[in-house]
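[Meeting: bench + compute handoff]

Bench side (C.D.) handed over the final construct sequence. Compute side (W.E.) agreed to return the predicted structure before the next meeting so the bench team could plan truncations. Sequence as handed over:
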Amino acid sequence: MVVAIILPILTCCTNKNQNLKETTLINYDSITFWIQQARLKKATTNQQIETLKKAYNLTSKISSDSIRSIYLNKIAIESETQNIDSLFLKVNAESIMLATKLGNYSILGEAHWNYGNYYTDIEVIDSAYFHFHKAYENFKLIKHEYFMAKMLYNMAYIQSKFKDYTGSEVLVFEAISRFEKVNKSEMLYHCYNQLGLVYYNLAEYDKAVFYHNKALDYLDKIRNKQIYKEGSLSNLGLVYQKLNNFEKAIDNFESALEQRELKNQNPYFYARIIDNIAYTKFLRGDTTNIENDFFKSLKIRDSLKDVSGVVIGKRHLSEYFAVKKDTLSAIKIANEAFNLADKVDNFRDKLETLLLLSNVDKTNSSKYLKEYVRLNDSLQVEDRKIRNKFTRIRFETDEYIQETQKLSQQKILISLGGLIVTLLLTFAYIVRVQRIRNKELIFEKEQQKSNEEIYSLMLKQQKKLEEGKIKERHRISEDLHDGVLGKIFGTRLGLGFLNIKGDKTSMDKLQSYIDELQSIEKEIRAISHELKNEILTSKENFFKIIEDLVEKKCNLENLEWEFNYDEKIKWKSINDNIKINFYRIIQEALQNVIKYADATKIDVAINLVDGNLELVIKDNGKGFNVNEKRKGIGLKNMKSRAIKIGGFIEVNSYKNEGTTIYVTCPIQNFYYD
């Protein structure tokens, strides 16, 4: 009966789980599909926004927070890549909240990395640096060497941009040590190239040459070199330019031009190289055709709206015209460069152009120098503030970590001291308590043994009652058959042989009494036989004992209950030890349900399944996690009892889905009626 009930439930649960699994897979596939659609080159900005919004809306249907956080991070990365700022800020903030709740440092690190990229793009540099540093700290917690190194490189790049070259140098070397552990050649190239730029700006040109050449060595290990080699050759050319080694500078610039067809593939870089070659020749004193090259580069930069490139080109032209004594052209072009730099707030180019104007425009030289000094001082103050911010971000984070470690150490010391004191104070007490506990355990064991003996006696008494009832029925049957029936039979025969004369009515009446006596004989004989028949024997047996137990326990707590059993089981053929342990397991299980489960109904069933006696106890309570919850003495006792009778016990429970206890044991010499 129980099996018949459980199978539909299991089938229903299986179908439900299958449907849930299919729905989840559909959600995951759909989210992935919409993210991929946003990456299509032919997709417009509006289409990208709509597809990513669809992907984001589908994440709300994911029940697992950990999986949802992964997809939120993917959508945030794609939104930042596609410059969809409003969606990025919303999704990334949600990603950080969920990752913080889950303690997922990997997702937290990537979310801060996303913020770092976003603030770098909009040039909010202190915020970018803060988030790169936060990302680094999270990746540090999970010991992700590659991502830690990437964040160090990003921070080094930002510090270099704001002239904190020493700080940048330290971080780059730390990044290199981590990139070497994971063998990332491309990032090692970028690091050594960055070191070359750092030493160039620190005027340590020999070191700059060394690290640029080392960066070029790593290019041999990179498949997709992109424009890296041309960039490194150009950087080397600029270093040699500073060393006044103009021949090597020009060789490197020209080698960069020879690498591939740059004019069409990367016109920005092509224009820069043309200008660098022309300017290096100018510094060398060679003015042959360099004017044409200056204008050629300037024309390309102007067509590409490369404002910074145009400013540099005009500065170089201004210097060229100044040397040619064409002062008016030199001043005019220098002013054009300054106004353009001022228009886009390019302070580096404004400084360089002010210095140039102070040299070419002798009339206003003092004015330009004063403006140069003022602007340079203000920029130094701002750069110093930003560098201090970088230091403060690192310091505050390190200080927080050190303080946390210090507090942890203090906590450990206090805990250790308290533990030692507690041990010293309670050592004697523990010994005493242990002795008392041992006595309690012995008493409990003896009591348990006594209870089992009482139960065994109860079963034997029940058996004797059954036997007494059967004997009594047999006695009554025999008394009716041999005594009462014999007397009635004798009386009937006596009446039949009497020679009584009378009228016809009296004789008919006499015969009717004789017939009635015969009918009574038959009825008594039938009752006598039925009393001997075992079909009418009392049902008062082990099932009745269990039913009484379940009824009594459940009625006390106003619980609904149901007890099902296989009526064909002959308990008299089953070992008393099995019955005792089954009884105790049911008793313990009912007690646990009443105390902890908050259930409203309990089902108990005993059946024979494949030659095994099977006990199923099921409740509709709040359930518990069988893997996490510490197993109490009750569960341990039930398991111990199942083992004693050569069986096993299985407990299945889920939160808010109730608990089911299965107990099975093999039975020797059982049989059906």
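W.E. noted at the follow-up: Residues 1-17, 19-23, 534-540, 669-673 have pLDDT under 50 and may be disordered. C.D. will use this when planning the next construct.
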